[in-house]
Amino acid sequence: MKNKLCLLLLFLALGAVQARAQGRHQIEVYMGGLGAEFDDLNLESNRSDLFSLYEPQTNAQSQPVYTLNYAYSLLKWLRVGMQMDYTLISGNSWYRLGNKPSTKFNKNMFYALPQVQVMVPGLPHLRPYARVAAGIQVNTGDFKGSPVKFAFDLVPLGIEWGGQRVYGTAEISYGSVVRGGRLGIGFRF
């Protein structure tokens, strides 16, 4: 997976260097914290009330959330685009009472979220922003539950720093994709 990510970054960097447009398009690659679904699974299994004795318990592990983000600048302060995310959650599930055996699960989670991003006027090499994205989450794997769900991602504070063509980015995120933060690199062309 790391080799594929490195190749993707190299390809995007070469494309950004050769592009001669006015910088209206941008592509960003992020690696974020643990997925929001992972938090939800762990909260459910840590309950200790009488009802939880009859509910399935889970022990889950999660990979980071990988994000590919495309945005187009309509105005200097307004961007629209698409956010694509992926993460894998795996683990096992069991019941505290009864004779049901423990079962293992793998849950591949894909997200497709149209987005709107608002840039805050700032310094040329430090550009704050906020973003709202909403769309769908598609789950594949052997975990029980609905395969398609509504998903959203709210970024109340994000910061781009560095150059105008290649830049770093960090953001605080809350939603059904990531609860925490992301770090990434962006290319504008």
Overview features:
8-stranded antiparallel beta barrel, single chain, 9 strands, 189 residues, Porin, 14% helix, elongated, mainly beta
Helix content: 10-25%
Query: What is the CATH architecture annotation?
Result: Beta Barrel
Q: What's the rounded overall pLDDT mean?
A: 83
Element order, helices and strands? HEHEEEEEEEE
What's the arrangement of strands in the largest beta sheet?
Answer: 1-3-4-5-6-7-8-9
Number of helices: 2
Domain module count: 1
Write the layout of secondary structure elements.
Blueprint: H1 2-18, E1 25-34, H2 36-45, E2 56-62, E3 64-73, E4 78-95, E5 103-119, E6 126-141, E7 148-162, E8 166-175, E9 180-188
Antiparallel strand pairs: 1-3, 1-9, 2-4, 3-4, 4-5, 5-6, 6-7, 7-8, 8-9
Please describe what this structure looks like.
The chain is mainly beta. The chain has one domain (23-188): Porin. The protein has helices at 2-18, 36-45; strands at 25-34, 56-62, 64-73, 78-95, 103-119, 126-141, 148-162, 166-175, 180-188. The model is unreliable at 14-21 (pLDDT under 50).
